[in-house]
Amino acid sequence: DDIRAAAAAVPQFTVNFADAAQDNSTQVEQVDTFLTQRIDLLIISPNEATPLTAPVKRAFDQGIPVLVLDRKVDGDAYTSFIGADNVDIGRQAGRFFAATLLPAGGKIAILKGLAGSTPAKERSDGFNAGIQGSQVHIVASGDGDWLRDKGQQQADAILKAHPDIQAIYSENDPMAEGARIAAQNAGKPDLPITGIDGLPIDAGGIKAVSAGRLSATFVYPTGGKEAVDAAKKLLIDCQQVAKTQTLPTQLVTKDNADQVYATLNKH
């Protein structure tokens, strides 16, 4: 939606969208189809890094600028990466657990994103660094693949096996919302659960924090506007763009959720 809105302001641009529905081979085919259509620029959010590295390199080697959005590929055969610092977001989440949520320590569980995607690894690595030296202990984890239903299933299993956990760190908001349902079903309606993404839409994480379903989330900017700005620089202004464009994040709690929501919706 962000890309569509931003591109509407650039009359020279026509944007064709393809959704791989979390399937690597579908996404590889879609990239190759776009290449046969002789596109001028590719914006891609790779489902998983390694399987999408070769098709992204094929585009790049043909002289087509490639903007990698949100999730990375292996190596550096692309024009620019646009996204937030997932290690830093994970680290901030870990510090939030250690300093604010469970300052006396405790047992927690993690719901991880899709295993081969770079944000899943980075949000885990950062979190582990953030809780280092504290008494917060990870006693269980499950791969929820970024999906609400799968997050709920994983959280169900974790809560049955570890009924004494005191909080859940979810690597995105949809899995966190699934975990909330699991916690309610397990008779733990007040279990602290945090997410990441903080989309400023009615169904997003900021509203979930405001409503009390999530204890906190971290804004992960979608980068759509920045991607279109970069495309315009490359194709129309004939300028270079930075190899990496790091987008800012923000901790969202009950205290600032409504204010953050209003601010993000002004842009």
Describe the structure in your own words:
Strands 1-2-3-9 form a 4-stranded parallel β-sheet. A 4-stranded parallel β-sheet has the order 5-4-6-7, with helices on both faces. Strands 8-10 form a two-stranded antiparallel ribbon. α7 links the parallel β6 and β7. The chain contains 10 helices and 10 strands. α4 packs parallel to α5. It has helices at 2-7, 24-36, 49-61, 86-101, 118-130, 148-161, 173-185, 205-210, 224-235, 257-264, and strands at residues 42-44, 66-69, 80-84, 106-112, 136-143, 167-170, 193-194, 217-218, 244-247, 251-252. The chain is of the alpha/beta class and 267 residues long.
Percent helix: 40-55%
The SSE string, one letter per element, is: HHEHEEHEHEHEHEHEHEEH
Q: Please report the number of helical segments.
A: 10
| Percent of sequence in beta strands | 15-25%
Low-confidence stretches: none
Please tell me what the overall shape is. elongated
- Using the CA coordinates, give the radius of gyration: 19 Å
Terminal CA distance reads 13 Å
Structural class: alpha/beta
Strand order, largest beta sheet: 1-2-3-9
Mean pLDDT: 96
Q: What's the main sheet like?
A: 4 strands, parallel
DSSP strand count:
10
